[in-house]
Specification:
Elements lengths: L1 E4 L5 H10 L1 E4 L8 H8 L4 E4 L7 H5 L6 E4 L9 H6 L3 E3 L6 H16 L2 H7 L22 E5 L3 H11 L4 E5 L13 E3 L2 H7 L2 E4 L13 H6 L5 E4 L8 H9 L5 E4 L19 E3 L8 H19 L11 H4 L4
Parallel strand pairs: 1-2, 1-3, 3-4, 4-5, 6-7, 6-9, 7-8, 9-10, 10-11, 11-12
Helix pairs in contact: 1-11, 5-7
The structure holds glyoxylic acid (GLV).
Glyoxylic acid binds next to loops.
Length: about 325
């Protein structure tokens, strides 16, 4: 059996695969083009993909031997799941193992933007630190502020837990059924308008779907406080990037911490990067050695389980497992 792996991932995953199957590894730093991916995966039984690899029906039709697409990510908006299901291809992901690490990073962005860490740190090597300034780098208090969590899933909850150490009040929205009290004692479920109106920080934790694409646009920014800070560690297209840049430029909101952007990569010349109260990081929220190793291991286990006719730990479309391809 053979698995095509679209980028070098930690040994914790590659090693597991190597022990039992042949591996075709894309060694490039950049994602393979469609033709390169087709050449890499021709005749393979499975794909181990990244969020930068588009997997759709047209690709699978040219790779009829593929039975599993194991994504090295919790998000799977890069994969057309109905197209996979229609072809009996299992789609697997890596939830849980990256929850806490991603929440740490969301909180790191929140703190860094609120307290002007980027601007104040940059001022030192630039030679602008002349003295202690009563009016220099004034940011916003995090403790006691209101945190709006859009999407109270695994990562949203982990962010909520961290906010308790800062005595924050939590408002949240969620697609789930249950109303009323949230996962944390001080969390209150509200509608999006209320959350945007009342929050000092708005942190996004929704998957990218047809419903969430562009969900934070002009109307939403205008509902927010002028002192508000937006944190996005979910997916770039949940926010309208140009409208966000306008809102920051014209003071409609105060700041933003973005680990994800639309497009990715964000061009180095993008006007967002010139705004002092904006921190953009290159989609690294899950990037710790331990977490990436856990993701690699889970992605490998998912793929191997499907190929061995076992139940994979984390399958998005388990209905295909009963009627496995081939
Ligand atoms: C990263 O963005 C992931 O979905 O794991």
């Amino acid at each position: 059996m053979r698995i095509a792996v679209t980028r070098r991932i930690p040994e914790a995953g590659l090693g597991l695969l190597d022990e039992v199957v042949d591996v075709s590894l894309w060694e490039g730093v950049l994602p393979p083009s469609r033709e390169e991916l087709l050449a890499l995966a021709e005749g393979a039984d499975g794909l181990l993909t990244l969020l930068t690899d588009r997997v759709d029906g047209a690709l699978l039709d040219r790779l009829p031997t593929v039975r599993v697409v194991s994504n090295f990510a919790v998000g799977f908006d890069n994969i057309d799941v109905p197209a996979c299901t229609a072809r009996g291809v299992a789609v697997c992901i890596t939830p849980d193992v990256l929850t806490e690490t991603t929440a740490d990073f969301a909180f790191a962005l929140l703190l860094a933007v609120a307290r002007q860490v980027k601007e104040s740190a940059n001022s030192v090597p630039a030679g602008r630190w002349q003295t202690w300034e009563p009016l220099g780098f004034l940011g916003h208090d995090v403790f006691g502020a209101t945190l709006g969590i859009v999407g109270m899933g695994r990562i949203g909850r982990a962010v909520a837990r961290r906010s308790q150490g800062f005595d924050m009040r939590i408002l949240y929205t969620d697609r789930g059924e249950q109303a009323g009290e949230g996962p944390e004692p001080l969390a209150k479920r509200v509608d999006l308008d209320t959350l945007l109106r009342e929050s000092d920080f708005v942190s996004l934790h929704v998957p990218l779907t047809a419903e969430t694409r562009g969900m934070i646009g002009r109307r939403e920014f205008e509902s927010m406080k002028r002192s508000a800070i937006l944190i996005n560690t979910a997916r770039g297209p949940v926010v309208d990037t140009e409208v966000l840049a306008d809102a920051l430029d014209s003071g409609v909101i105060w700041g933003a911490g973005l680990d994800v952007t639309d497009p990715e990569p964000l061009p180095a010349t993008h006007r967002l990067l010139r705004l002092p109260q904006v921190i953009v990081t290159p989609h690294v929220a899950s990037a710790t050695e331990a977490t990436r190793a856990r993701m690699a291991e889970l992605a490998a286990r998912n793929a191997l389980a499907v190929l061995h006719g076992e139940t994979p730990p984390r399958c998005v479309n388990p209905e295909v497992l009963e009627h496995a391809r081939g």
